[in-house]
Amino acid sequence: MYLMKDVTRDGNPVLRKVAQKVTFPISKKNKQLADDMMEYLINSQDAQLGQKYGLRAGVGLAAPQVGESVAMASVLIPNLDEPDKIDLQMTLINPVIISESVQVTALGEGEGCLSVDTEVPGYVPRHNKITIRYDDFDGVSQTMKLRGYPAIVCQHEIDHLNGHLFYDKINKKDPFTIDDKALIIE
Ligand code: 4LI
Ligand code: NI
């Protein structure tokens, strides 16, 4: 079971590497890694378990964040209205964005990251709509269209697999300056 002590922090070179592609059939080690990343997200979103184990809550976790430079990330997005429902639960394996909207979006409160201990204020410009291609656990290529918050989370996680961190994309001079037409998600 992963704990915060296992989460790599900004400054660790693994966070700046391009992750290695996953090969198929998937190894037991990589399958376990995927299960453990998803378990972290589940536990972190549970008020009791999160408290008990000192977990910071997240909706996404990429393998480099637990020290493994492989192209996998877990995403678990609870429904905001009915917290017992799940909006998106998936493991991204070898994900790539194959198309993206011109329309930009950003979280009004900025982004957080389990690997970044300090708040970095500012809008992180993201594509409002993306189409991703990724492999499922059987190595079968899949595509999925995402919009809004799930699209933001997946872009944040795919960035991790390419060595990028959210604050790289914040306008350093004017952190809250963004395209007039950008959709700000509050
Ligand atoms: C408790 C239980 C306010 C501040 C609002 C918390 C269950 C920030 C938002 C959660 C912010 C859950 C989140 C991300 C932001 C802020 C991630 C709380 C966990 C909201 C997820 C990857 C960016 C994702 C919306 C600096 C660890 N997550 N909030 N950003 N939630 N969470 N990101 N932004 N301002 N980060 O952080 O998992 S994409 Cl679900
Ligand atoms: Ni992150």
Q: What pattern of helices and strands is seen along the backbone?
A: HHEEEEEEEHE
Gyration radius from CA atoms, angstroms:
16 Å
Q: How much strand?
A: 25-35%
Q: Any idea of the CATH topology? A: Peptide Deformylase
Helix content: 10-25%
Secondary structure: elements and pairs:
Elements: H1 28-45, H2 47-53, E1 60-62, E2 72-78, E3 86-100, E4 104-107, E5 126-127, E6 129-135, E7 141-147, H3 149-161, E8 183-185
Parallel strand pairs: 4-8
Antiparallel strand pairs: 1-2, 2-3, 3-6, 4-5, 6-7
Please name the defining characteristics of this protein:
single chain, 186 residues, alpha+beta, Peptide Deformylase, binds ligand 4LI, binds nickel (II) ion
What this model shows, in words?
The chain has 186 residues and is an alpha+beta fold. It has a single domain, classed as Peptide Deformylase, CATH 3.90.45. The chain is built from 3 helices and 8 strands; from the N terminus they run ααβββββββαβ. The chain has helices at 28-45, 47-53, 149-161; strands at residues 60-62, 72-78, 86-100, 104-107, 126-127, 129-135, 141-147, 183-185. A hairpin with a 7-residue loop joins β2 (72-78) and β3. The longest helix has 18 residues, at 28-45. 32% of the residues are buried. Nickel (II) ion (NI) is lined by residues 113-115, 156, 160. Ligand 4LI binds at residues 45, 57-60, 78, 107, 109-114, 119, 152-153, 156.
